[in-house]
Specification:
alpha/beta; Rossmann fold; binds NADP nicotinamide-adenine-dinucleotide phosphate; oxidoreductase activity; transmembrane; membrane; NAD(P)-bd_dom_sf
């Protein structure tokens, strides 16, 4: 396992990345997404951050906190239930109208449940949609907006299970 000091040293090294990185956190209102967004904001220069989720109350608090951590950061919230793919498309369109490129797409949307199939209005199982279809749709939707030094993506599926999308 990577030590905490190694993680902190790596985070500090992000200062050498170009200013103005654009990062999209699908599931940025809590947990792994929020903690990663916070450290990215702390350790980069003039980042632009999009947090995507449903909880607007939580998002407002987070935006205030991240702006205090780094006054050069631009943080905004896109409120969407991304278990619906039409909402994923809307979020991608919104980001594309504002940004020429996305450097980091970080996807942790999802939840743990032992409940059986729970169908969305689009006929997909909600949990499976969030863990698979939503993430593939975001990956495709932001694909033509990717680019440059520091680009990459990560999807977290469960404890210790993740995929590097570079
Ligand atoms: N942390 C662990 O140890 C662990 C262990 C096993 C599995 N996992 C899985 O790993 C992933 C990330 O874990 P985490 O601990 O960061 O989870 P978390 O704290 O519950 O965060 C999940 C994020 O996904 C968003 N989200 C959930 N449903 C959504 C929807 N329908 N539309 C839009 N956003 C939605 C939530 O935002 P809103 O509430 O604002 O919608 C939240 O920001 C999850 O899929 C979780 O099940 C984590």
């Amino acid at each position: 396992m990577v030590s905490l000091s190694e993680v902190r040293a790596h985070n500090a090294s992000l200062k050498s990345l170009p200013a103005g990185l654009v990062a999209v956190f699908v599931g940025g209102t809590s947990g792994i997404g929020l903690f990663t967004a916070r450290e990215l904001v702390r350790n980069t220069t003039s980042p632009t951050i999009y947090l995507i989720g449903r909880n607007a109350t939580e998002a407002s608090k987070i935006i205030e906190e991240l702006r205090t951590i780094n006054t050069s950061s631009q943080v905004s919230f896109i409120q969407k239930d991304v278990s619906l793919l039409k909402n994923v498309d809307e979020a991608c369109r919104e980001i594309k109208t504002k940004e020429k490129q996305v450097n980091l797409l970080f996807m942790t949307c999802g939840y743990l449940t032992l409940k059986g199939r729970d169908e969305t209005a689009e006929g997909l199982d909600r949990k499976f949609a969030l863990h698979y279809y939503t993430r593939m749709r975001f990956t495709n939707g932001e694909e033509d907006a990717g680019g440059g030094e520091g680009e990459g993506g990560l999807a977290a599926y469960g404890g210790g299970v993740w995929e590097d999308l570079r």
